[in-house]
Amino acid sequence: MLLKSTIYRIIEAQKANFSIQETGLQREALKSLPDLSSHVLIVSGIRRCGKSTLLFQLLKDKYQDALYLNFEDPRLYEFEPNDFSRLDEVIKDSGTKVLLFDEIQIIPEWEKYVRQKLDEGYKLVVTGSNASLLSRELGTKLTGRHITKELFPFSYQEFNLFKKLKSDEDSILKYLDTGGFPEYVKHEKDEILQHLFEDILIRDIALRYGIRDVKNLQRLGLYLVSNVAKLITGNRLKSMFDIASTSTIMEYLSHLEYAYLIQFVPKFSYSIRKQLVNPRKIYAIDTGMISVNSGSFTDDKGRKFENLIYLHLRRNYKEIYYFSEKGECDFIVFNKGAITQAVQVCYHLDQDNLDRELNGMIEAMEFFKLKRGTIVTLNQNDRLERKGLVVDVIPCNEWIK
Questions:
Q1: How do residues 121-155 score in pLDDT, each as one tens digit?
Q2: Is 259 strand, coil or helix?
Q3: b or e along 274-313 (b: 16 or more beta carbons within 10 Å of the residue's beta carbon)?
Q4: Is the pLDDT of residue 206 over 70?
Q5: Are residues 334 and 304 in contact, defined by beta-carbon separation less than 8 angstroms?
Q6: Cβ-proximal residues to 379 (8 Å cutoff; 6+ apart), any chain
Q7: 25, pLDDT greater than 80
Q8: What span, in angstroms and rounded, lies between the C-alpha atoms of 241 and 315?
Q9: Rounded distance between C-alpha atoms, residue 331 and residue 343, angstroms
Q10: pLDDT value at position 148?
């Protein structure tokens, strides 16, 4: 339990801390955030990707009289659901009608409180680093009265702006190694991403879900981040780790995905059941996270490059598959149930891999009745034709605009 005076002092201290901070690089996502009305705006994304900074930018840009409260403040560790009534009094005294709540999901029954404030006519922005908790609780309590926006680490364009780089092959290679976590981009100290990796595994997964076998969770996380762009199945992972059942492995994979650390791309099939049982491809949320935490002894730029292309697609689309029949196409992208593009990724296209890459692309294009496809490379530009179909070979820095 916290006193009203304590809550007030914490809010004032956080406000004072905000006032002396720089707003940082203006995020691209700020332009697309909707004006608040009858819906709660939810900003979700991996820990340390810049959600708090985005709230700060929103506060400075639109809602200067808003009340901001970060629930991960250690001084709020004793905050209980009953303390919401005292927070109500502080909010009423402030006179504001706009509330910005950072990581409120760690407080039990938070969703009831958010619904209450929405019904009272307040405008609310809520951030969170766990997609499962946010979607599950808000889906039941807010019944459609929320809009969710995902925030990722810096995009390639944001990275170039921050580093003052031009769009070319050199900056792509730099971005490939560094990734987009703002703090790491600024300081480039490996400890930042090493600690973040462990923080997510321990705080966002092990503690939150009561996982006692932390060692195997850590081993699994390390294996996945070291094997991006490869195929995995629950049964195969179970045989590799000392974990009792496939269902436990699948739970761990879900936790890793909901915490935004690891992403999984299913094989395309019109059968949902087949999508569930077929192997899935692994991707990490950030290529810098791979560079720093991978246990691989080889620097496989090709697989990390494919991860970079996936992340660019994932920023814009949620429905992404790989296609595999006789050959393979890396990405089949849908939007609102309709296919939009087929994308093949090849770090360097040469005579040795040309047929393999092109055959997989053409097979996918014929299957989905596409007239045009794309092969993204590091620095090559070309136009290929086969069977009346056109495949554009495009350098990454041009394609990723």
A1: 999 999 988 776 656 556 666 767 888 899 999 99
A2: coil
A3: eeeebbbbbbbbbbbbbbbbbeeeeebbebbbbbbbbbbb
A4: yes
A5: no
A6: 169, 395, 396
A7: yes
A8: 32
A9: 5
A10: 86
Give the pLDDT mean for 259-279.
Answer: 93
Q: What secondary structure letter does DSSP report for 34?
A: P
Cβ contact 357:345 at 8 Å: no
pLDDT of residue 30: 92
Given a contact cutoff of 8 angstroms between Cβ atoms, the answer to whether 137 and 112 are in contact is no
**Residue position matching structure tokens 């609780």:** 137
- Tokens representing residue 241 in the block: 């780790």
Can you give the length of the chain in residues?
401
CA proximity to 359, closest of 394, 323, 308:
323
CA 208/CA 175 separation, integer angstroms: 32
- Is residue 39 within 8 A of residue 146, CB to CB? The reply is yes
Nearest to 320 by CA among 263, 394, 253, 397: 263
Query: CA 220 to CA 272: how far, in whole Å?
Result: 26
Tokens matching residue 355: 């047929």
Sole residue written with tokens 């926006």: 149
Q: How far apart are CA 178 and CA 220, in angstroms?
A: 23
